[in-house]
Amino acid sequence: xxxxxxxxxxxxxxxxxxxxxxxxxxxxxxxxxxxxxxxxxxxxxxxxxxxxxxxxxxxxxxxxxxxxxxxxxxxxxxxxxxxxxxxxxxxxxxxxxxxxxxxxxxxxxxxxxxxxxxxxxxxxxxxxxxxxxxxxxxxxxxxxxxxxxxxxxxxxxxxxxxxxxxxxxxxxxxxxxxxxxxxxxxxxxxxxxxxxxxxxxxxxxxxxxxxxxxxxxxxxxxxxxxxxxxxxxxxxxxxxxx
Length: 242
Ligand SMILES: *[C@@H]1O[C@H](CO)[C@@H](O)[C@H](O)[C@H]1NC(C)=O
Ligand SMILES: *[C@@H]1O[C@H](CO)[C@@H](O)[C@H](O)[C@H]1NC(C)=O
What we know:
Residues 1-20 form the signal peptide. The chain has helices at 4-12, 23-33, 42-49, 64-72, 84-91, 93-99, 109-123, 127-133, 139-149, 175-182, 195-202, 210-216, 225-238; strands spanning 76-77, 81-82. The chain is mostly helical. It folds into 2 domains: 24-124, Recoverin, domain 1 (Orthogonal Bundle); 136-238, Recoverin, domain 1. A two-stranded antiparallel sheet has the order 1-2. Strand 1 and strand 2 (81-82) form a beta hairpin. Helix 1 (4-12) runs parallel beside helix 3 (42-49), helix 4 crosses helix 7 and helix 9 packs across helix 10 (175-182). It is elongated, with a radius of gyration of 22 Å. One 2-acetamido-2-deoxy-beta-D-glucopyranose binds at residues 74, 83, 85-86, 89.
């Protein structure tokens, strides 16, 4: 028997904003929905953790999703199907758009619940959907972010989520520089940041004093442009005005 927290990580994360405090109850619901396949065994919990890797059309624990959603969520009810308003509220309109067809596809309620929900949780991980969901950036910025990502190996795509933690090392090497160059956030001649563009495209606002402070972090600006561009931009983002 595993602690509930272990096996709930997988599904609970998707409801972090709407059902943030359901964890103990969610653990009970998950256990009861696994009754048909032997309950909350170690193997079942492990398998459930790989939910997102389950095949698109094959639910490894038959009817699990139908049971789970019916008991725990406002997303879906066995007799009425997915509630599109709730889907948009909880997953965003971009994910809804990609999964719309899957929300009603299937032979029966169990099939539909799995097809729809599996698509929703898988799509949340899609880096291009992630970019679409970033708040307060311009359409042009979104396009550039997507175009700059495409040339990279797909195995690196998931690292895009690490950017929001403002790490010291860039998760995808030179990705930021590509964005900065394409949005012309930095003057190529005098290498001054374009404060108006930073604000307009990326909604980055910072105190006047930060510019100097952030420059000071990268005294050797000439070397490795990818590194200092990332470092300074991250620094600006950390010094948002209150
Ligand atoms: C669908 O979800 C919305 C938002 O959560 C809710 O207000 C509405 O009552 C739901 N509709 C049905 C038919 O359950
Ligand atoms: C986006 O912009 C709006 C309006 O300026 C603001 O209220 C909101 O907090 C911003 N969201 C983020 C995540 O910066």
